[in-house]
Amino acid sequence: VSSGPGSGDHGDAALRAVELLAPIAQLDVPLAPHTTYRVGGSAAVFARPRTLDDLHRIADAVRGTGLSPLVVGRGSNLLVADAGFHGIAITLADLDCAGTISVEHADDVGLGGAVALPVAARRTVAAGLTGFEWAVGVPGSIGGAVRMNAGGHGSDIATSLRRVELFDLHTGHHGDVAAGSLGLRFRGSELADHQVVVTARLGLAVGDRERSEAELDEIVRWRRSNQPGGQNAGSVFVNPVPGEVAAGQLVDAAGLRGFRLGSAHVSEKHANFIQADDSGSADDVRALIEFVRERVAETSGYVLRSEVRLVGFGDPEPVVPGVEIGNRR
Ligand SMILES: Cc1cc2nc3c(=O)[nH]c(=O)nc-3n(C[C@H](O)[C@H](O)[C@H](O)COP(=O)(O)OP(=O)(O)OC[C@H]3O[C@@H](n4cnc5c(N)ncnc54)[C@H](O)[C@@H]3O)c2cc1C
Known about the structure:
- This protein is of the alpha+beta class and 329 residues long.
- Helix content is 28%, strand content 23%.
- The structure holds flavin-adenine dinucleotide (FAD).
């Protein structure tokens, strides 16, 4: 008896979802190519909405099948289990409004949810604006950055975010929400899995283009010399005491730099990065995350929290009600 995403109750629900969503959804689509870890299993359903109406159809399919939705941005903070994700994965890559960049003036920069952060950083600098340079080193999307409150180099998206256009896949509500209502905190927010960031509006400042370009170069140089390339999702653990105790130092002190478990290993270059082998296993990465967490707790007393979004491992999911959205429709 097979127990993959395409079988049993989930299989029936997935089949119904794909029927409801033809032609924008497919059954059993590998998610590895949609993540920077490049390992892990398939989504039972993978949907590529092109219009807001398609998002309404996905909301109907979510309600009609009971399958969970998961927005996949650039997959740079996701680890999908080898068993896959038994729900509806959604990419905004084909959604027109999610790919746009509009610079009205410094105080009102519109960015689609699917826009890559480095692209947004370079475009805003090219327009003579300052305040988003930090994003050049983070390989995520605007939507993923809002959900995670991504940041670096002394800033984060909360610093310049004014408001977002959200679409709720449970209620079908679609509307603008002020940044202050998103519960943005260090590397997190109150957004739930069923809430899609369609676009975001930032308030930046008029800057000195040459100085900002030099800052972009410096950030890229710093990243290249301090962080590994290859298959990872950036820092695995949140620093337990920001600015004072770094997770990487604790991993290092536990003697785990370079430590290997199956097809996953702790980076030699940065001990808070866990690398996957080419054709490796997401379950090995997960097992190594747990091993490191336990070893660090034993040696230092700190219980590290994973910054990476773990999908499909069967962990109890915290109930996140999400944020209130007024309705545009
Ligand atoms: C080499 C490397 C370096 C990194 N450095 C940093 C760093 O310095 N600072 C930092 O904060 N992060 C860093 N990261 C992690 C990652 O890039 C960020 O968390 C990023 O914001 C994730 O965006 P994403 O589009 O890849 O999201 P994904 O990984 O695709 O998804 C992450 C979460 O966001 C949700 N999501 C994605 N798109 C949307 C959307 N449109 N609407 C609603 N929810 C959405 C997903 O459902 C998921 O819950 C790094 C990652 C790598 C690989």
